[in-house]
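Recap quiz, item 2
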Amino acid sequence: MLYRPLGSTGLNVSVLSYGASPLGGVFRETDDREGIKTVHTALDLGINFLDVSPYYGATKAESVLGRALKEIRRDRYFLATKVGQYGDGLFDFSATRVKSSLDESCARLGVDYIDVLQCHDIEFADLDQIVNETLPALVKLRDAGRIGHIGITGLPLKVFPAVIDRVGPGVVETVLSFCRYELNDTALETLLPYFNRRDIGVINASPTGMGLLTERGVPAWHPAPPAMVAGARRAMDYCRSVGADIVKVAVQFCVAHPGIATTLVGTANPENIRKNIAHVSEPVDQELMAKVLELLEPIRNHNFTRGRPENRDPLIA
Ligand code: NAD
């Protein structure tokens, strides 16, 4: 495993890290014992950064992750969770909820300290509230030593500078962007110099585009339009025809970017996390990667957007 500093947080994180949403049964019904084994495999093979949210599986992912962490020494991992999103369409970014949410997450996870607490999907929020209420509440928790660092997450890229430009330096220490740096979309790159100048750590999530670039394909709730699914399918078909694994190409593409501290991959299958970790140090087949990128060119950066109208990226598909 390789490690990179996460902005100015002082956390040296594995370039591939573990996203726990599948433990909540987000992609398919999962076996908790397998999920717990997946977490242990991830940690044993060098992953040291874990991301979750009370939203995933309506708190189930946090509870299963908490069971997995019971027997693990607290200094073996950095733990990130989130506040603000609690169900489909259910958001609460108020200061009171931030505090109770942290307490509830800690209880489920069996810890008394969260390394990175993030505002979850701020494109669904009134950004004035994020700036004036949610982030100040998080700063208080950080000052009190309940959490280590503060982050924000979202799909539309414009929400990141929209918030960061309005708060003092050091308030937002990490950003979690998903589906915007993967084989079929590299739009996140345009913001990397902006984050870098501010020493903000970049967490890139969903190297397979939440299942888009996997043999199983997208789950029913996936927002990708049919043209995007069909475009991704061409690259997958090609990989299959030459006996290659598209997930390997996807993981290697993401972890290679030096401006991205870590890429979060989700799975509840121990064998898949083992393979994904192996991909980090396996040689890259440059010819295959170039071919896959070429096949994905027709859908490049044609991604979906979402959130309040004022928070959406001007788009795209
Ligand atoms: P992902 O791209 O990591 O894809 C997960 C899917 O890929 C699952 O269906 C999984 O079974 C499959 N998969 C993983 N490894 C595989 C392998 N080797 N072979 C075949 N299939 C494989 O998407 P994700 O899980 O949505 O994202 C990773 C994590 O990032 C999440 O669990 C979550 O922690 C985080 N995330 C956060 C946000 C946010 O904060 N808004 C959004 C998206 C993701």
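Residues 19-22, 27, 51, 120-121, 153, 176, 178, 205-211, 214, 247, 264-267, 272, 275-276 surround nicotinamide-adenine-dinucleotide (CB under 6 Å).
The domain at 3-211+251-284 is CATH 3.20.20.100 (TIM Barrel).
End of item.
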